[in-house]
Amino acid sequence: MTFLVRLVVNAFAIWLAAAWVSGIDISSSGNGTAWDIVVLLGIALVFTVVNIFVKPLVKLLSLPLLILTLGLFTLVINALMLMLTAWLSSQTDYGMTVDGFWTALWGGLIISVVNFLVNIVVPDRD
Questions:
Q1: pLDDT tens digits for 56-98?
Q2: Looking at the record's lineage, which domain of life comes first (predicted)?
Q3: Where are the chain's structural domains?
C-alpha cells in the first residue's frame, strides 16, 4: 500500500516539476489525458524503483561528501536520480527528458519538497 502511495506522490511531484521547470518535458503520444496519466505513472514507477534500489547505494558511496557538506550533497544525488530516470524512460517513445544538470537540480528540489510535505501529512508506519 505504501508503494502505491509513494508511486502516486512521485507521479504528482514529477508532473509538478515538469510544469514548473522549463527544461523538464514529459513526452507522450497525445492520445488523451488518460494516456498522459498512464505515461506519468510509468515514469513515476521508474523513478520510484531508482530511488528504492540505486539511491541508497549512491548515498552510501558518497557518505564522506554528505558529511562534509552537512547533507547538501543530497540535492546533487536527487538531481542524478532524476537524470537517471530520464535516461531510462527515454529508451522508449514515451518518457521524460531533462535538459541538463541544473534543470535536474531544480526538478529534484521540487520533487524532494513535495515528498517532504506529503510525508508530513501522511507519515510512514516506521
A1: 999 999 999 999 999 999 999 999 999 999 999 988 877 899 9
A2: Bacteria
A3: 25-119
Q: What is the DSSP string of 25-87?
A: EEE-----HHHHHHHHHHHHHHHHHHHHHTHHHHHHHTHHHHHHTTTTHHHHHHHHHHHHHHH
Q: Of 36, 51, 37, nearest to 8 (Cα)?
A: 37
**Assigned C-alpha cell, 10:** 512521485
- What pTM was computed for the model? 0.89
Which neighbouring-strand residues pair with 27?
A: 95
User: Which phi and psi (to 5°) does residue 95 adopt?
Assistant: 175, -165
Q: What angle (nearest 5°) sits at the alpha carbon of residue 96, between those of residues 13 and 104?
A: 65
- SS3 state at 19: helix
Q: Residues with Cβ < 8 Å from 53, sequence gap 6 or more? A: none
